[in-house]
Amino acid sequence: RQQRALLWCVLASAWEAAWGQLRYSLPEEMPKGSFVGDVAKDLGLQLQQHSERGIYLLDKGRTQYFALHGQTGHLVTAERIDREQLCRLVEKCVLRCEVIVEGKIQVYGIEVEITDINDNAPSFKDIELEERISEMTVLGSRFPLAEAHDPDSGKNSLQSYELSGDEHFSLAVQSGPGGDRHPELVLAKALDREEAAFHELVLRASDGGDPARTGTARIRVTVLDANDNAPVFSPADARLSENNAAGALVLTVRATDADWGQNARVRYRLGEGRVRGAPLSSYVSVQAETGALYALRSFDYEEVRELELWVRAEDGGAPALSSNVSV
């Protein structure tokens, strides 16, 4: 043990000088025992000369990723290596170890680059996305979308986005200073909530592998209502016998509004006008919520044979839209 400890101390100063004498490349996810390189051959070692004293492999770090076959001098994997787990934020993934030859006081540094394979598909954090856009939004408006992520590197990483599902929208992709890609939803055709209250889209992210791998997210666009429709009346006409009782229902006018919510809430009121010098409001009244018209007095055919009046319907938008009907 004392000899071994002394040997490590003597060799410590030589490690940096010998570093990087051997370089190998290995794809990630290779099974345990996969061949990495012929260390003995590449260093010109005669194993028979060192069989009694031994050749040792020292891995950097807590995990032993490689093993050295003493009889063959072959460097092999000691376990399956996941590049994304080891080098998630590093472009070039390199593992280092040393071969120590006892008796010759020689240390040989080894670098093994772990190359990427396309073992990950682009993915979205949320596969169900939602956008809320007013129907009055101007054409060309842009809305940032959630980005996909791919832990692979190089061409195996995220390369492109594609949008499908609806002619009202197109896709724009902005490139960041670090090469990141940022998808944006672009309004290509005017929205009309009364025509379609929802739009279903599919955003697809693809990498550059061969074959390429993809990930998708569904986008549901909810069209927010704008007060762009005025109430529309149905034709109104009524007949009333004379000598009616005060409070009799004359008729109910109806107006519909194609908008939604408060924008479609209709209220009614009488228009301006006079009959035989008296205001219309002294002859009839209208219920604001229902549009029901009631007689406020008993009519005399010899006095008033025909009564023309206007009813206005007004929605709850801001600003409100209105329309009139003649009764």
TrEMBL record:
Keywords: Calcium, Cell adhesion, Glycoprotein, Membrane, Repeat, Signal, Transmembrane, Transmembrane helix. It comes from the Eukaryota. Residues 1-20 form the signal peptide. One of its GO terms (cellular component) is plasma membrane. Residues 25-124, 121-233, 232-327 form the Cadherin domain. The keyword Methyltransferase does not apply. GO terms for molecular function: calcium ion binding. This is PCDGC protein.
